[in-house]
Amino acid sequence: MSATDREIEMVEFTQMQDGTKADYDLLHTLERHYSSTLPDRLLSALERLGDGLDGYRISRLQHSLQSATRAENDGADIEMIVAALVHDLGDELAPDNHSQVAAAILRPYVRAEVTWVVEMHGLFQMVYYAHFRGLDRNGRDAYRDHEWYDSCVQFCERWDQASFDPDHPTQTLEHFAPMLREVFTRTPFDPATGCL
What we know:
By secondary structure, the chain is an all-alpha fold. Helix content is about 50%, strand content about 0%. It contains eight helices and no strands.
């Protein structure tokens, strides 16, 4: 049945200040359903990375899969594996602050360390190339005393910067989909997760 064949429930208000309890109960129900489909939308967004930025030997999707494969092969936990998988999701809409976008997507579902590592990976990875562009490659040094500095260095060194190899055995998106679904169906901002 199409939307034109059925009556679509919608709020009565045209300004939020005029909403009623019934309006907001309806929206809450609809938003809960929409939120439950987040893993599907994230998987679709990852698939779109297959058609992204040119110039690399592999697509952004392959880079993401290879990063997650390396994390899994290193024995990382599920949160870090999923973080490696989605760390460049922001590239499509926010290439200059993609790290922060990916961290914001992860933040409600993972521990604070994982969010921080993803948020900072853009700065930390500059150690590999910034000098070629006349930029400071040592910006990460400002965080040398941070408790998760070494974790971010490892993320960038072992999983991110190393994952542009078309010959590296890499798992499929289908392999990682159950992990992604597990993480992104958690209760958001659950104190037990340790998220910020």
